[in-house]
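#data-curation
PF: Archiving a pair of folding outputs for the training set. Convention for this channel: one message per protein, sequence first, structure tokens after, nothing in between. First:
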Amino acid sequence: MADKNTKAISPEMFTFVNLNERLTDVKFDDKPIGYFKDAWIRFRKNKSSVVAAVIIALIFLFSLTAPLFTKNEATFMDTYYAKKGPYIYGLDVDGFMDGGVNRDFSEVGLISKIAIGIGAEDWDDHDATLEEGMASDYQPMLEISEGYTVIDAAKKEKTYYHGKIDAYAEVGFLYKSIEQSELQKMRDWEEETGLHLLYPLVEDNQYNIDPSDANNWYKTKKYQPLYTNEKGKLKNLEYTEGMVLEDNYKRDADGNVIYYEYTGGGTLETAAYKVRVLYANYYIYKNGFSPVYLFGTDSQGYDLMLRLAGGLRLSLLLAVSVSVINFMIGAMYGAIEGFYGGLPDLLMERVSDILQGVPFIIVATLFQIHLAAKLGAIPCLVFAYVLNGWIGIAYRVRTQFYRFKRQEFVLAAKTLGARDSRLIWKHIFPNSLGTIVTSTALIIPGVIFNESMLSYLGIVKLGSATTTSLGTLLADASAIWTNYPHLMILPALFISLLEISFNLFGNGLRDAFNPSLRNVED
């Protein structure tokens, strides 16, 4: 009870201090920041995660746009151009996408390669010179160093040359069996384009070491090129500046070279003929465009850039699909465990323990053996990942729910009558999102790595004309990568970039979606 002597406090007894004066010029932004906007602001501050996100975006963009940079179809294969380096036909820039390979050549080997360029200029039997052959667009030898001498086991001196050769032009000439109608098309194409396609046939005699090799157009004996000396005798030819190769072409009774010969069968239109073609021009004739392989070709002759793009699309699609499915299953499973606890949690944990004890590689192998023929390799791989891949997410969600379900804000919402579903997804789940998103993002590099491993080991068969994977490309290159390093380096580089980038990206997401860090300045 108030004292009788206590006076009532009236509003008139209070006065305002600095009523009309501004205390500060600082304006405070009291506009609320949304959850995802705040997460985006924090994510941008993590520079490594931003760089990783850019790299992932570029790789994804490459996987989609790679077909725009080449006229080759993904299923197009050329066995003659298999295992070749990056190449653009007609690009006159030394050392850049010229298909060049450094090699050491014996004298006989060097002459055989130079002979391809000379033969390409000798399409009309005018006895092309060494100078014409070296200046030819079809000359495979890009560089030739001065010779050096070594002494072999028999104590004989041998001369070798270090050089750089165009691995595409090295294919040189090929024999083809065609119909008569095709022969006329070739002639018309030569007149239309001005390119030479048909070349003189080579005589099958004692001067032709290998009749199946269309590049043996000059006279040889025991693989040694021959020339006619002043006395009219054939002598061994040496590599010199004035070197002249003596042709071994087929000729008719009048001495004219023969460009085709009948091999039997068919009618006037379908009779079979044997011809000798320059493959660089034959490629253009058959496909309608010049060869362009920005990343080179794989071990079978497919465009490596398109194979890499296809492998990346498959890996990313598989990894993202598995991550989304595991996220959904794991989030729901772990939320129910953590929120209700007790007997439901005990029973569900035992199920998780049983599934977790099944090794992934065993499941993947069994599915591939027994189900791949019916369902396909990729669906079986997805089933193997999903069987127990969600358990890690479920465990983290369960842990977070046990952590937050006794917090004051959850108890207050429950007191106000919030339903269980609202408590789970509106109040507890967002606080667990940072950990869950990180776990989900880190599933992606794990799936990519495991898929590559299974393909590399041959457990999963993904190598076909329409489908391939990064692991399959690595497996194909494993036995030959020392001679063709680009076949191993490029797939390994993409796998490494994806693994590192997704890990950094996942760390950035973890910090961005952590509600405890909201409005915290670095």
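PF: Second:
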Amino acid sequence: MQKKIIVIASILFIGLIITYSNHFDNGFYFDDDHTIISNVHITDIKNIPDFFVNPQMFSSRPDHWGLRPIITTSLAIDYWVGGGLKPFYFHLSTFFWYLTLCILLFFLCRKIFQKSLDHKWNSLIALLSASLYAFHTVNAETINYIISRSDVLSTLCITSSVSIYIIYPKLRKWFIYIIPAIIGVFVKETMAVTPVLLFFYILLFEKETSILKAFRVKELKNTLRIIVHLLPMILIIIVFQLYTLSKAGESGFSNPPLQYLMTQPYVWVHYFISFFLPFNLSADSDWKVITNIFDDRIIIGLIFIIGLVITILKTSSNKETRPISFGLIWFCITLLPTSIAPLAEVMNDHRMFLPFIGLSLSLTYGISLYIINYSKKRTLKKEHKIILSTSFFVIIFLFGYGTYQRNEIWKSSESLWHDVTLKSPTNGRGLMNYGLTQMEKGNYPTALEYYEKALRYSPYYSPLHINMGVVQGALNSTEKAEESFKKAIQYDPNSDTPYYFYARFLTKKKRYIDARKMGEKANEITVYNLNNQYLLMEIYDNLGLKNELNNIAKHTLTISKNNPLALKYLNKKNTEISDMNNAEIEIKNNPTSEKYIDLSLKYYNIGEYLKCIASCNKAIELDPNNYVAYNNICSAYNILEEYQKAEEACEKAISINPNFQLARNNLKVARAHTQ
């Protein structure tokens, strides 16, 4: 039997690699943008110690700051190994931990089955359970979504804690089983379910007590002893969890708590059905909370929950069926955290990743137990065994085929978001993101069409208005574009994103003074988004704000060492300073009006505006009709926001040369602030 297990396991292992062979080059999506792509901190592996104390290093967006240092560390390692943002290395890392989880699951299931059933098939049943989970189509949603490795690693930590406790009881006195739980706290908040799972394991398999019996008055003392036994783990998880939560930013709670809770039983029905029929998977669902308490879906959900509880209680009373009970308990307990907290999204396919371990365990053991009991009454013929074996491999193949196809859907932004528009047609974010893929291809009318559809469902969604502004700008609808950017700011004033895109739009229109205000606001909200810094450098350079340019470039180098753009601007300033010094030496030997004009421009370029004005005054002393000098004085005063003086200088330049257009443009800027 052992040799057969090894052969089957080897075939399945190769099959799993083939199943996921087409996913390694899939891109970055959703929250990958701010946790990976624009997260400058993962670009330097030396930042790893700071990940454990600085929540701002998890994301470039303040509303997503939090302490998940194990995740950020793993991303920094992937970046370092791959030499940049190469999806292959990020996917390879996630897949490695997924394989580790599936292998560990085999040993955990086998040990649990041995507690209830003494049969030569235990290893085979455990292999079936682990394989069913490994190939399951739903898991593709988690494996393809890179930042969702938090689900993979937290599930691995939970499973490791439970496995160490169950498989190595002699290590309990050293509390080794708590170590993975501590690590898991720094991955995701779901680690609180670990002592609950162990509580029910001890109750069912070590105390050999049914759930109903355990909570009778006579048994409460024994039940409390289990809790006391697990108290060290509970307290340690609480302490570390409080530490990570104290560093967290704003929560993602945005649904009415009561209505969210009312909706979850039906969501559980959906999850349960998806285990058997994973046909309607969507990367971004359009489910909404149920508002009517008499809605049929609420009734269906409650009936399902009642049936689930009855099944758990009934199967817990018999030693042979307790693995079924434990698997269903696993399903329920691990769903509770996302069912109680009123998250922004009612349901998400990647939330099934951890709970499906329980369903895989229950289903394979339940079917196997039925077959074993049947074989005690009637001999299983050879053809029966062939049918059973074939059925298993067909199921695995179908799940694997489904997984392969989901990998293909995740192949590009266009294919992923087009699938979302089909599966979740009332999801404003999904419609917007598909429109974004069309905008990137230059199909602006199509993009605008999808944005307008999205507005019907998400009228107050700031990113949607940002993209509306971008496409309207590309179509030269300047007024509409500005209106969209302003709405984006109105609906999300605490995010840097709408300010950044509005500043970028204004920069393209060469409205640098207005762009400066928006760009500085974006950078004020978060100084960790390099896009904000790059845009400000461009704006400052065009405005001639050399001191500000110098400061922002130096700051960029503090968070992105040897940043090429920052170094370029700093080197440019050093060159300009050198030219200025040479010009100062030369003018002392041979002062002319033209040389003072040239020197004034050099002062202007390095941000020495008062010296620029002084140099122009020297030029005027030598040539009172030098209209270029008056214009340069006007430009410098505009930058210094002394608009009255700027206006006077430009008027003087135009009085000398009425056709001097540059002076007229500068005069227009000055008067815009004095009238």
